[in-house]
Queue: 2 jobs
Job 1
Amino acid sequence: MGRTKSQSIELVEDVPLSGDINISLNAITEHQLEIMQQFGDGLQYERNRIVHETRFYMAQSAESMLEAGKRLVILKENEPHGEFISIIENELGLPYRTSVRMMQAATKYLSPSLKSNMPTLAHLGKSKLFELMTEDDESLAELADGGTVVGLKLDDVDRMSCRELRQALREARETSAAQQRVLADKNEKIDALSTKLEKKSRIQPPKPDEEVKKLRAEVTALSTEAESAITVRLFSAFETLCAYCADNQIDTPKDFMAGLVCELEYAARNLRSTFDLPDTPTGNAAPAWLTEPAPEINRQEA
């Protein structure tokens, strides 16, 4: 039987990575560089060195725990997920959940907003630092600077056991959650009432504004007083002045009287101009004196 002739296989040229893959790889590399810049102390990434240093700091104090957490972050960002799990479990003998808490603690307490407070907070120990991780950075910075967190000062936290601290934090969170629920319930009732009132206002016309009625009454009283001063008191004064001049054969000072009237007219024109008032009121605003004859003034009574 003859040998079957083998077919030649053509090699396919290398195909460049797509733009999206290149972008993803660049983003990963950039992220790794940022991690090394923040946690790597200016050194290049070396897996064996990082594992050795992590093992060393795991056996030390709270500050050392954070240093170990830094290096776990570096390992996580540079090693594939499965390889990272193998390192922490097989080479470091560290449960994955614990490694996560250490990385979270390092990321939080060594952040720019808390790094300067870290020497003070580190005296509380690893367990209490873990418990305090749920508090915001501002509260922890205030605690380190002599303030309080959930009503506890730094000395109070230091004297408490880890269990007591956990209980205090839990009670504070439950109280805060209850207050939030009450506030949310109150806001919901206010919104419901507002919606109900809004619907009601669409059906029924709004009632007259009592404050506007009060102000209009005050303005009317002032206007009536000014009108009385002109039509009664000033009229009587002019009449008295004219009678005195006639009895004593003195020329009536009409220029003087005209000047006073001009001042009153000027004041009236200024009001009309300032408030853009029409020359004659229309509709219901027209006063009775426009449609009714003016009553004769009894000069003797005036």
Note: The CA atoms of residues 262 and 268 lie 10 Å apart.
Job 2
Amino acid sequence: MKKIFILFLLLSIHAKAQLGKSMFTKDPIINLENFDKQRVYWGYYLGFSNFDFKMDYKTNDGTGIDVQGNSGFNVGLIGALRLQEYLELRFEPGLYYASRTLTYSQFSNERDGLREVKATYIDFPILLKFSALRTGNVRPYLVGGVSATLNLSSNSKSKDDNAQQKFRVQPWTQNLQLGFGIDLYFEYFKFSPSIRGVFGLKNELIPDEDPNSPWTGNIESMKTRAILINFTFN
């Protein structure tokens, strides 16, 4: 995750450097001066993600699960409706490839003690974007909203469970998204790096058939947590 964050900072710094004098001089050259006067506009984004689970347990018996988030990739489209000068309503459907590795300390062999939970998400977020006053060719913003997410790799219809090495989760979940970013106005396009947190609102676990399963029996709830780093082009 540190590598992704460092990459986000480096790309943002590089983008600012490319703007050069048009951004930081006393009388900057204003790029795309009328861009923010559009009622509706479109774009797309590419990015990286790191998905995790927030685990709540029924009992604290010392057999916790170590969850390791793995870096993933995301891509999507953007449709924006300007409600007023500083506020936009945005629809950002996207495709996310993610995985987590669950390690169970009570098992002595790797076959039983490791589960890789892969996910292919189709995300449908409705967001509000609150923009600050534009200064030259820079405009910071906050973004937040809710999303419904379909996991195409949930294994929810499988009759097998962890006894057959099949970890199952719910196909649909709902999330809260909160984040911030910067709009950087270039001569021909607007580039917007952003970082967001994703907070699952629904228990995603499908328990094993055995209520005393060593893999799911002690889990009260399992909710998505994620960090998204997106690079948006309009």
Note: The domain at 2-19+38-233 is CATH 2.40.160.20 (Porin).
